[in-house]
Amino acid sequence: MKNPLTSYSRTIRRALLRHRIIRIGLVILILWNLVDLHFILRLVAETDAVYRDQPRQTERIYIAMVNWNNEYLLRNHLSKAITELSWRLRPENIYISIYESGSYDNTKGALVELDAELEQLRVPRNITLSYVSHADEIAAPPDGEGWVVTPRGKKELRRIPYLSRVRNHSLESLRKLAKQGIHFDKILFLNDVVFTSNDVLELLDTNHGDYAAACSLDFQKPPFYYDTFALRDSHGHEAVTPTWPFFRDASSRRAMKQLQPVPVKSCWNGMVAMAAAPFLASPPLRFRGIPDSLASYHLEASECCLIHADNPLSKDHGIYLNPRVRVGYTTAAYVAVNPTLNWLTPRSVLQGLWWNRIRRWTTFSYFKESAIRKKIAQWARWSPDRREVGEFCVVDEMQILDVRGWYHV
């Protein structure tokens, strides 16, 4: 007969052992988090310590920008930032090309004032003011490329081919100048964002200037990043969380945690620098949308992602997201993420790390991506010539141009 006291004693010892293992596990977990936090916050403290007065190397930069209904931002920040940037990069090293696309506010007036300021600095430039509005585009006969039959049974104008056409307008001077023997090393594409000259200098120097493309991080409602449509990690996956450290792929996530240039397959995020040579090649690199026939499967892809899929330099020179360069669509958004300590506080670091882990452990990108691949495969079966190299850019959406913007269908 077993002694009940002996059995009870064993139960107590097992309970204490389990309790000890749990305590050891908790201590290890806490230490792991503290080491991770210390390492990251040390990098945060060092990130903003470097002040760059001038570019490390003299390059010729072609600055391209598209404006639509940006009067407020131009008058309150953007025009001043562009003027200061022109002085920092020096007028003889730059060319500014701005295309205004039928705004409803007084963006044209703000650009006329900017033109006068750039004239005083003798900055070479071309500012085109278009009087073709979204309403005019939509009212045109639904012929040619860029139109799709939507689930509502109507033939409607797609947003992405329109944006591609507008962005390509901002590159027309690049070709004209090349015919005159005037060439540029890089193209700096600017969205309607708040930035400083130091942000641009840091961006241009990403990976010591060796890249096919280098992008900033953009924010409209911090701490959530904005450009989910174009950003893909180094394996072509969408970000797993909208906050730092964002990525599912280990190499992209590791670089983001170290605040180093992050290898990605695509990005745009408010401001991007690209090597200029592919845009002057034969055939030249151009912004585009996916074919209308593919879009009819209720699919779409950002022109800012497809440009990287088409760029012959992407594979050999890489595409990088620079976490040290953060821009905002408002002044408040910019201040919320600059300096780095505003963006990565101890609390946000711990929350971001664990949210990212939980999402990676509990979600799978395969199912969403597989459904899109099946649609593309179905489309491709109709013709041996059908192929989409930017498959990783494609999402299950249909985006239609609207008089005041755009909408999903």
Describe the structure in your own words.
43% of the residues lie in helices and 19% in strands. The protein folds into two domains: 47 residues; 348 residues, Spore Coat Polysaccharide Biosynthesis Protein SpsA, Chain A. The radius of gyration is 25 Å and the shape is globular. Strand 4 and strand 5 form a beta hairpin. The mean pLDDT is 92. It is α/β, with parallel strands linked by helices and 409 residues long. The strands form four sheets. Strands 1, 2, 3, 6, 7, 8, 9, 10, 11 and 13 form a ten-stranded mixed sheet that branches. The protein has a two-stranded antiparallel ribbon with strand order 4-5. A two-stranded antiparallel ribbon has the order 12-14. It starts with a helix and ends with a strand. Helix 2 packs parallel to helix 3. This is Alpha-1,3-mannosyltransferase. Keywords: Glycosyltransferase, Membrane, Transferase, Transmembrane, Transmembrane helix.
The percent range for strand residues is: 15-25%
Number of domains: 2
Q: How many angstroms does the end-to-end distance come to?
A: 76 Å
**Envelope shape:** globular
Examine the coordinates and then state which fold CATH places here, giving the name of the CATH topology of the largest domain. Spore Coat Polysaccharide Biosynthesis Protein SpsA, Chain A
Query: What class would the helix/strand composition place it in?
Result: alpha/beta
Helix and strand arrangement:
Layout: H1 4-47, E1 61-67, H2 71-89, E2 94-101, H3 107-120, E3 125-130, H4 134-139, E4 147-149, E5 155-157, H5 159-169, H6 172-179, E6 186-190, H7 197-204, E7 213-221, E8 224-225, E9 232-233, H8 250-257, E10 262-266, E11 271-275, H9 292-295, E12 300-301, H10 303-310, H11 314-317, E13 319-328, H12 331-337, H13 340-343, H14 346-362, H15 366-380, E14 394-395, E15 399-402, E16 405-408
Parallel strand pairs: 1-2, 1-6, 2-3, 7-13
Antiparallel strand pairs: 4-5, 6-11, 7-8, 7-11, 9-10, 10-13, 12-14, 15-16
Helix pairs in contact: 2-3
